[in-house]
Specification:
24 strands; globular; 25 helices; D-amino Acid Aminotransferase, Chain A, domain 1; OB fold (Dihydrolipoamide Acetyltransferase, E2P); alpha+beta; binds 8-methoxy-2,3-dimethylquinoxalin-5-ol; 5-stranded mixed β-sheet; 36% helix; Helix Hairpins
């Protein structure tokens, strides 16, 4: 039966909207909706066309790829159509795909090649006699944009191939992308120069490659992995995809090291889960995994549908971005009085989690991203990171949208708000008088890395302060079951557990205690440094600013914060209260002699993403062995520890001839410092 008029209208609207968003994405590199929203529009149109085949007209975006080339570029006709990929959004979609192709081939347990789906720009590269002669974007799949001159500036793309057994003429296809680190550095530079930043690495990669001036492309940190081929003499093809890729690798064409061959759909799922768990640590952004049949003859049997091969599918990860509206911008007061603008959002599901707030960091950031109250915005929630607004969509701005203005007085206590010259952070000047700062200070005191008071969560702290059952953190130690039983929703057992946790926390360490006090700029590492240097609380309390600066890595700012903290009568009262409550610790271990602090006098710089440690953990490890961890490379650096995507610090270290350790060599050195020279020799490049 033909579709009814309203259904027909909806399909027409969807076709129009998708066409519009295709041009924003493919031609302007400036999408107006998050990818997930786009996918939803496409899925809706596909479902309508499945139900009403008469709607599946020629020219529907479900039957086409991308968008026509932009007029600014000359055109390249693809000798073999450059198609897109079908998507699987669920396990069921993937099982359907497997069933479909197994049925058509008459075999089960098929072999697949699997690899990450990079979030970049697909390109076609043609080689003749081993020389790159043409590069093109996908365009609409038939005709792409000629980007040869720009592509030649990419170091990852060989202008001339190694070896000589390549076909006279052939075409490879792959993804140009911008690694996360390069993206961050590019945006940092743009910020410094007051220029526009890119919303994400995909837009940055596409915008950098689709430039009229190749010199601009040359200065952008672009990379490339080949994922397949287009035109290729059939009689020179091997049997499998992985053999093709192995050949390409020999010729100097980069292929993704995460490419694997797996057996059956279960191994595809296992690969998907593994990659999803590592998604945040990969040096580039991915939005899913691609599965393709390994056997090239099987591919030929299955062939192509209108816009995608039947033998491949992209299994998408849950989305990290969504579009929603900013309904208000509130100001949150942190532990140190910093005022952070927070966007209150119309609730939106991002990768299965409902997001209602996103941090806006500071006023500069709000203005730089031009975010107004009432705006539509793209929000991003990657892994467990706090959601943030990636960009506003001024094109969709309602007339009544309002600018954000940082209040002149603290919303929690009414004290004046100060913004120090040269700093972007506005601060409430109320100190612990401010209930918001006070609340955050108590939460920090109880937190895991501070006094570790298990069971004293945020809600409980709110109640204790609101009901005035505590005034300072010292009062926590006067709580008893009877008082706690007056709190809402605190069962007797939980109250008992809390009392137990409070008792246990009385015995702590000096570094933890110093960290728990919440002194400005005294994080875990600085607290440990101060404890190591001054050995006991009284000596630290008595130290003047100059003396404080004799400790490693303690500069004038931290010294001033520490000095001032111990001169405030209120703080001294709280300290006395805590001592009276029986907070105690063992004396700091004897100043360890050199054998136990093998890194004394050595400075490490940690850069890039490590596998088994966070950079903070690695720095702590260096400190615990007597070394210094510095933020930048200089001639004084003893070692640089380089993880994935190490960026410019590694380049500088190599230029200065500083020994480079990879993570394994670093850990080996920590365990067996005497092995230093041997480990570095293997880790130093070239
Ligand atoms: O657009 C694509 C990205 C990645 C692809 C692709 C891919 O493999 C990793 N593979 C094919 C076969 C196609 N597009 C058509």
């Amino acid at each position: 039966m033909g579709a009814s008029a309203p259904v027909r209208q909806r399909a027409a609207q969807l076709r129009k909207d998708i066409g519009f968003h295709n041009r924003r994405y493919h031609q302007l590199d400036d999408p107006l909706i998050a990818d997930a929203e786009y996918d939803r529009l496409m899925q809706e149109l596909l479902a309508l066309e499945r139900e009403h085949p008469d709607l599946k007209i020629t020219g529907s975006p479900t039957q086409r790829v991308g968008a026509a080339p932009a007029a600014a570029f000359s055109e390249v006709q693809h000798p073999v159509p450059m198609l897109s990929l079908d998507n699987a959004f669920s396990a069921e979609d993937l099982t359907d795909f497997n069933r479909r192709i197994s049925q058509r081939l008459g075999r089960e347990n098929l072999t697949f090649v699997v690899e990450p789906k990079l979030d970049g720009l697909a390109v076609s590269l043609t080689y003749e006699q081993g020389v790159l002669v043409r590069a093109a974007t996908r365009g609409d799949g038939q005709t792409g944009e000629n980007i040869t001159a720009n592509t030649r500036t990419l170091r990852a793309i060989p202008g001339r191939l190694n070896g000589k057994d390549w076909p006279e003429q052939f075409e490879i296809r792959g993804e140009v992308f911008m690694p996360k680190q390069g993206f961050r550095e590019l945006n940092e530079r743009a910020l410094g120069a007051g220029e526009k930043t890119f919303a994400n690495p995909r837009n940055a990669a596409a915008g950098s490659l689709r430039q009229l001036d190749p010199q601009v492309t040359a200065n952008r940190p672009l990379d490339f992995y080949c994922y397949g081929y287009g035109l290729y003499p059939a009689d020179q093809l091997p049997e499998t995809h992985s053999e093709v890729m192995a050949r390409f690798k020999i010729w100097g064409i980069p292929t993704n090291p995460e490419l694997h061959v797996v057996q059956g759909i279960d191994e595809c799922f296992a690969y998907y889960n593994d990659l999803q768990s590592r998604r945040q640590t990969l040096p580039y952004e991915i939005d899913g995994v691609v599965y393709k049949l390994e056997n090239l003859r099987d591919r030929e049997t299955l062939g192509f549908a209108a816009r995608a091969p039947r033998w491949a599918i992209a299994h998408k990860f849950p989305a990290e971005e969504a579009t929603t509206r900013v309904v208000a911008i509130d100001v949150q007061v942190g532990r140190t009085g910093a005022l952070t603008p927070v966007a209150r959002l119309e609730p939106v599901s991002v990768g299965g989690v409902t997001v209602t707030n996103a941090t806006l960091h500071n006023t500069d950031e709000v203005h730089r991203k031009d975010i107004r109250i009432g705006d539509m915005v793209i929000v991003r929630r990657a892994g467990d990171v706090i959601p943030e607004v990636v960009k506003s969509l001024p094109e969709l701005r309602p007339d009544e949208a309002a600018m954000f203005i940082m209040p002149t007085h603290c919303p929690a206590c009414g004290s004046e708000v100060e913004t120090i010259e040269g700093e972007t952070i506005a601060r409430c000047s109320g100190g612990l008088y401010c209930p918001a700062q006070h609340k955050e200070a108590v939460k920090h005191f109880a937190s895991r890395k501070a006094m570790n008071i298990d069971g004293l969560g945020d809600k409980l702290v709110d109640q204790l302060l609101e009901k005035q059952l505590i005034n300072t953190v010292a009062d926590l130690y006067r709580l008893n079951i009877e008082v706690l039983s007056r709190l809402d929703r605190l069962a007797e057992k939980s109250a008992g557990n809390l009392i137990h946790a409070l008792n246990a926390s009385r015995y702590t360490t000096l570094p933890r205690f110093l960290f728990a006090l919440g002194i400005r700029e005294v994080g875990e590492v600085t607290a440990r440094t101060l404890a190591e240097q001054f050995r006991d609380l009284d000596t630290l309390k008595a130290a003047d600013e100059m003396t404080l600066q004799t400790a490693p890595d303690i500069g004038p700012t931290v010294a001033r914060h520490v000095f001032t903290f111990f001169r405030q009568p209120h703080n001294l009262e709280v300290l006395q209260g805590l001592t009276d409550a029986g907070i105690h610790w063992d004396p700091m271990p004897e100043r360890t002699h050199e054998a136990a602090l093998p890194f004394i006098g050595q400075t490490f710089v940690i850069t890039g993403a490590l596998d088994s440690l966070s950079r903070e953990d690695a720095r702590s490890l260096v400190h615990s062995l007597g070394g210094k961890a510095a933020g930048s490379v200089s001639a004084k650096t003893s070692y640089i520890v380089a993880g994935a995507e190490p960026g410019s610090k590694l380049d500088k270290a190599l230029a200065l001839g500083i020994p480079v350790l990879d993570e394994a060599a670093f850990l080996a050195l920590c365990q067996n410092p005497a092995s230093g020279a041997a480990s570095t020799a293997t880790a130093t490049e070239e």
